[in-house]
Amino acid sequence: MTRAGRALALAALLLLAAEARAATACPGELVLLARPAGVELARVGLDGSGGFALSFRHSVTLRPVVDRYRIEDGKIVQIEHLFDSHGPGLPDAAGADLVFLREGDRFRVRMHRPIERLVLRPSPASENRLEAAARLDLAALGAGPLELVPAACSERR
After folding, report:
1. Over 60: is that where the pLDDT of 56 sits?
2. Per-residue model confidence as pLDDT tens digits over 76-133
3. Is 79 exposed, middle or buried (0-12, 13-18, 19+ CB in 10 A)?
4. Structural domain harbouring 20
5. Does pTM surpass 0.70?
6. How many independent structural domains does the chain possess?
7. Residue 115: HSE in the Cβ half-sphere, 13 Å Cα cutoff
8. CA-derived radius of gyration, the chain
9. What does the pLDDT average to over 38-46?
10. d(C-alpha 92, C-alpha 101), whole Å
11. Does residue 90 form part of some domain?
12. Using CB atoms within 10 A as the burial measure, which of 7, 35, 117, 140 is most buried?
């Protein structure tokens, strides 16, 4: 095996190990808070891998976009962008922290991007949805800006 092949195999093993750690961690919950008041609106269980997805209609291309996240060590980490049409704010090439893949007519951009605060402004036109253990239409909450915060496993109800 070449040096490049060994490096690629090692990178794949490290990625698999990180995914296995996330899958065996406490699945926890995601808390939705109305901002700026901080009032809890909902709690949603995370999916089996300790993650969730946010989907929306892009404001320029009007095409669907899905962003996938995982909770790692009590923090939200973005792990993927999925889309079929480029638009402002979406990556268009691989970078130091991005793996850009073309899958038929769709793009999958893999990353490991910690998110300090995840605040959204859902609207009916954007069709903002949260998918985890349950599916929520975020605009239907009617709360204005929302912040998504991981709940500690000890807080589970």
Report:
1. yes
2. 999 998 888 777 677 666 666 788 788 888 888 899 999 999 999 998 989 999 999 9
3. buried
4. 3-58+69-79+110-155
5. yes
6. 1
7. 20
8. 17
9. 90
10. 10
11. no
12. 35
Residue 86 or residue 14, greater confidence: 86
Query: In DSSP terms, which residues pair with 102 in a beta bridge?
Result: 107
By CB neighbour count within 10 A (0-12 exposed, 13-18 middle, 19+ buried), where does 45 fall?
Answer: middle
- pLDDT class of 22 with cuts at 50, 70, 90: very low
Tell me whether residue 91 is in a domain. no
Number of helices and strands (H, E) in the chain? Answer: 1, 11
| Cα–Cα nearest to 21, from 75, 79, 72 | 72
Mean of all residue pLDDT scores within the chain:
78
Residue 33 placed within a domain: yes
Q: Considering only CA atoms, which of 49, 57, 47 is closest in space to residue 128?
A: 57
Give domain status of residue 85, yes or no: no
